[in-house]
TrEMBL record:
Location of region: Disordered: 435-469
Record protein name field: Kinesin family member 16Ba
Gene: KIF16BA
Gene3D superfamilies: Phox-like domain
Record PROSITE patterns: PX
Residue runs in coiled coils: 4-212, 240-267
Keywords: Coiled coil
Biased composition (Basic and acidic residues): 458-469
Highest taxon above the source species: Eukaryota
InterPro entries: PX_dom, PX_dom_sf
Sequence ranges assigned to domain PX in this UniProt record: 568-704
Amino acid sequence: LEFERQQREELEKLEMKRRLIKDMEAKHLSEKAELERLQQEVESQRKESEEVQQRILRQEESLRHRSQDIESRLQDFLAEKERFEEERRSEIQGAELQCRRHWKEHREKEEEQQNKVKRWQQQAAEQPEIYRELERLKREREEQKVRMETERRRLEEQEREQLSLVGRLEEQLREKHEAASALLAREDARRLEDERQALAEIREVLLRAKEAAERSDVEDAGKEGKCAHNRYMDFKEAQVKELCQLEEGLRQQRERLEKEVASERSSLLLLAHSLKERPQQQKEVQEKGVQNSTTTCQEELQLKQMEHRLQFKEQQLANLAEDLLPTLAEEKQKAMEVLERSRSNGTCDGPSGLDTILFQVEKELEEKEEKLHLHWHSAQQLQQLQETYEFTTNVARQEDKVRRKEKEILESMEKQQREAMEQAVARLERRHSALRHSTSLELDTEEQRPSSSLTRTTRTEADPDQQRVEREIQKLRQRIVEGDDRSGQTQSLNTPLSDDRINAYIEEEVQRRLREMNLLNGGSNMNLSVSRESVREEEKLQNLNPRRLKYEHLVFRPTGSSYDGVQESVKISIPRYVLRGQGKDEHFEFEVKISVADEMWTVFRRYSRFREMHKSLKSKYPELAALEFPPKKLFGNRDERMVAERRSHLERYLQNLFRIMLSSSRSPLRADEDGVFRLSKLDVCEFSAFFKKGVFESSSHGTS
């Protein structure tokens, strides 16, 4: 029965498998039939498209023939019309020529008189306009001067603060280093270690002697106790001699420091006295102002350094006299007392004498170990302080590079603004000279024939305005020349900058400050005329600094550029990129700006997020497979040129993506039935989570 049941179960399983195979065969046949049907549909659609293309070609050919026929007819008609008009003109030319000549002469006289009046009125109106332009240029020149001076003072203040911080850390490091070196000179670590080992050996000998004294069957117990006592006495005598030598060395060091302090104090007084007399000498010799100010600054810096050095040596002398010598004398006194007490007690053969010496040895051993631990702790603190100082000096050097870079940017901006102002002044001078030239020509013509009362009145009104404009132009040009002289002196004091790449923190700081300066300059330049703005933009494009582009990473575009109808509904761009993270986590992130209707937002995405979005959208919308996506590169990911090129490629990719999706019939971003795009920020964020702000993981370096 069991066998039959198993056989029946196997038969049932086989039956189920057979049915499953039949179902799969039926499904396969149905899928095959569906595939054949789809292939037939594709083939039929292909044939239909070929037929449509053939019809289109035939229609184009017929239209081309018709257009050629129409063009030939039109040419014949135009030739006939021209012949007819020529004949007609020749017929009426003789009759109307005399009448037209008289009418033309009369009309020219009237127009000449009206043009003359209009020119005088225009000149009278342009004089106040030129004056207003000059006033605007003067105001902007003053604002630029104040802004540049404020920025220079801020940079100088930062530099002074950083130098003071580095100086304080350097002084603290020097004090710690000198204190540790003095401490190690007084009690050398190797000497302490040798004394600790000697005390440990004496302790072992004392313990063996104590054990031998407690056992009554040992004969040499007294001899071992005496040997241990003698070793301890020898150790203490050597220690007393070494402490005497150390004390003598410290006394000599104190005498040397006292002499150095006295000599430096006298030289410091002499230098301070010479600095007090320096202002009187500067008043007497004024023609050496720059050199005297430079030497005065150097002497003040030397005075501060001497004061710090003197203060440190005085502190070192006080520490030596108040701390080191008394401590060493106390230690020597204790060692001598222990030595005298041991000599007065004689040999310690009994257990009580051995216990006393053993207690003293263990106490000294603990003191040595504690001192060694203090030495180790002091060395650790000195190492930490050294690392802090090196880190701070490194940051100071990098910030000094940033400040120099900012100074160079300020100077280039000032130079560009000065050149733009010179262009504006030259343009105003050309306009003014043109007005004067036209006025002089008309005065010559007016001398030959009488002029109207209106022209005389206009000329008398324009004369004082011209004189005032000339005076203002001369004043403005003088100010520009003075600004050039001052900027030349400032540039002569600056050192040349290197093009080394600095770390990510410094680059982000430079970008932030450059954006602030660009915003300030953009707000202050809104009051200039359109012609002056065009000249300045041309000068910026010609004189653009590549070093500034390295840190700014901003791409300026003319407004109004669009890609067909995409810019009207969705505007997207990647204006810049930033360096985020440190070490292995260092990467570039691209700033994506999206504008839909009246809504505008910004997200920062790294290259891997672009690639993930491209894969997900390509799987949903096959028409996006033809888009060119910038490939992944295994090497050169940190190169500035490669990142800039990738930024432009990604920007073109996003713009092409939206152009395709806005025209696709399957896209959720397509236009409504009436052909109008009614998109919002929510629609774009639902289309892809890539454009949703804060959707990806956040790290200490920002949203990636």
